[in-house]
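Need residues for this backbone.
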């Protein structure tokens, strides 16, 4: 066949021999075979193995490659099975595709890169595959890239959290590196066994390297962490404390609203309902209208306004320098205890019990903004993964997007 070098260049096939090319129903089919030294290798360990049989492969297999302009391109090659000492009888590896895939590596890397950088619609339309297929591709790319650059390296300060997806039907444990801001591990589940699985994957030596673990005050997280990471300081995620304060504030708001309604003060009840978002927001982010609502609450309901100030003050603690923050925490606890606001008294009690873990977060400068931002990002990706075939595909998309495992575009890597 003439012009082999041009074909090789166009297809980016370094480790294959091109035999023929033909057009079939408007698509281009290129017949290829692995170079001699690439043949008969196990797809898992890449060792050369004795051949086993032709598999189901009287019929050659096809792999979708990147389009040539507007034309679909397929690679075609016969396959056979090899017998690996470690991995048993498996279909032999081919240098242009990942094991079990019917797309080339260049095609998959491009699809994964697009899944991270563009909209769902754009990936599917541009690559001419559906979103579910993108999920399968993300999984294979994650496994490949994860093996190449171990995300669990050099962890010193981590956060462990649980995330619910698909309206609370699936739960996942996620682990974040506070130093790089990267997602380093995720697994379906919300129990001790899942946390233990992470620690086992990390291994004993690396568990000892961990200096700080932030998490929710849940036994199923803190216990295995304390047992395995003996040099780690366990601190409470600011995110959960700030959320508890918001919940306490909301409880008061509902109480006050119910009282107003029962007393027949329809106008006040309506105002309180409308003030919900003003109460939740950071003061510096309030709109003029919301500021007005707050001023009105201060006027008509001292109790609710005190609750608002208590919640804001607690949020402020995670934004101050440690020394000031510790003093403010002390003052806050005193104030909350004698506030005559039951939800805040309860919260003060809880915070007193958890105080060493909270102070650890403050002295180690664990800001709430960073932790909350990571949580939001993970949730967004999880929602984006809607339509995938399994939670693993969702995790793969998250690891590619937030774990630094996104492959470069094929030409970048060359
Ligand atoms: Zn093998």
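Answer:
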């Amino acid at each position: 066949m003439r012009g082999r070098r041009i074909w090789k260049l166009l297809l980016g096939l370094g480790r294959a021999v091109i035999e023929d090319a033909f057009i079939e129903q408007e698509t281009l089919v290129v017949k290829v075979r692995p170079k001699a030294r690439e043949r008969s290798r196990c797809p898992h360990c890449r060792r050369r193995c004795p051949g086993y049989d032709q598999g189901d492969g009287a019929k050659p297999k096809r792999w979708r490659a990147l389009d040539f302009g507007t034309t679909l391109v397929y690679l075609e090659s016969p396959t056979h099975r090899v017998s690996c000492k470690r991995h048993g009888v498996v279909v032999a590896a081919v240098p242009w595709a990942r094991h079990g895939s019917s797309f080339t590596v260049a095609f998959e890397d491009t699809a994964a890169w697009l899944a991270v950088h563009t909209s769902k619609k754009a990936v599917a339309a541009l690559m001419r595959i559906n979103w579910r297929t993108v999920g399968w591709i993300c999984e294979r790319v994650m496994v490949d890239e994860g093996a190449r650059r171990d995300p669990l390296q050099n962890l010193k300060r981590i956060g462990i959290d649980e995330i619910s997806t698909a309206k609370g039907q699936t739960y996942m444990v996620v682990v974040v590196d506070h130093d790089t801001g990267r997602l380093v591990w995720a697994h379906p589940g919300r129990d001790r066994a899942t946390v233990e699985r992470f620690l086992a994957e990390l291994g004993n030596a690396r568990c000892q390297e961990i200096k700080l673990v932030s998490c929710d005050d849940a036994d199923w997280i803190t216990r295995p962490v304390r047992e395995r990471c003996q040099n780690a300081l366990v601190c409470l995620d600011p995110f959960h404390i700030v959320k508890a304060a918001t919940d306490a504030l909301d409880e008061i708001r509902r109480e006050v609203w119910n009282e107003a309604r029962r007393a027949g003060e329809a106008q006040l009840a309506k105002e309180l309902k409308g003030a919900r978002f003003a109460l939740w927001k950071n003061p510096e982010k309030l709109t003029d209208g919301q500021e007005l609502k707050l001023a009105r609450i201060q006027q008509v309901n001292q109790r609710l306004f005190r609750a608002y100030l208590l919640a804001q003050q607690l949020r402020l603690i995670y934004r101050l320098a440690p020394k000031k923050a510790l003093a403010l925490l002390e003052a806050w606890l005193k104030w909350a205890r004698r506030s005559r606001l039951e939800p805040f008294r309860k919260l003060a009690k809880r915070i007193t019990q958890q105080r060493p873990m909270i102070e650890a977060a403050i002295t180690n400068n664990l800001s709430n903004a960073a932790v909350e931002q990571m949580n939001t990002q993970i949730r967004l990706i999880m929602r984006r993964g809607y339509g995938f075939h399994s939670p693993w595909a969702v995790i793969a998309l998250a690891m590619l997007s937030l774990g630094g495992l996104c492959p470069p575009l094929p030409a970048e890597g060359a």
